[in-house]
Design a protein that fits this description.
Layout (H helix, E strand, L loop, with lengths): L2 E2 L6 E2 L5 E4 L9 H10 L5 E6 L11 H10 L5 E6 L7 H7 L3 E5 L6 H10 L3 E6 L17 E5 L15 H10 L4 E5 L4 H10 L3 E4 L1 H4 L4 H15 L4
Parallel strand pairs: 3-10, 4-5, 5-6, 6-7, 7-8, 8-9, 9-10
Antiparallel strand pairs: 1-2
Amino acid sequence: MGLCKCGSSSILVSMNVQILPSLLAADFGRLADEIRRVADAGADALHLDIMDAHFVPNLSFGPDVVELCRRVCPSLFRDVHLMMTRPDLYVDRFADAGADALLIHVEADCDVWETLRAIGQRGVRPGLVSRPQTPVEVLYPYLPLCGEVLFMTVNPGYGGQAFMPEVLPKIKALRAHTPALNIMVDGGINFETSALCAEHGANQFVAGSFMFQQPDMGEAVRRMRDLCEKQGNGF
């Protein structure tokens, strides 16, 4: 995964294709086994969606699940997406629980710049998230503090939604604006849509329902990575 020189404005990122299964789609009756399944599949990271039932119309889980992931598979990178109205109030709690990256929404009701800086000061990689309707230009002032940007390719809140192709031009615009940046997509991601996003400049792919429904997650991770590497060869 990309690296962050936290506490400074220098962000070092890796541009390799990365596949991140989303724990939101896991079987919560056997959560520890599902976490191990992701690690055994050779995924690059585990994506964790934290929903507060206010910023989005759903409630998921909190720091205890992040801590469980660290305990079950310590070496599996924990990419934590805070879909919260006030993510600034929870930076320390999720950092203490073991988040390796903390992503906040540019639309959140907080000082986005200060929150990103606080995340970096905790030794955690800061990231920024955009809803499908938010203009890409809104992200630009914050990029010096970001190790990754996540474009939601569905309206955030629930898994299993259909991919929104209107986000693709924003991915392409951000890649052109900041070539050496990790660009992530999440929402309706499968073999076809991941390759399409890679063609437009994305290099990190969050797959929830699609990935957890695969009988062989390891084969699905390898196939998605191969497809995206071929399609993204030009950026």
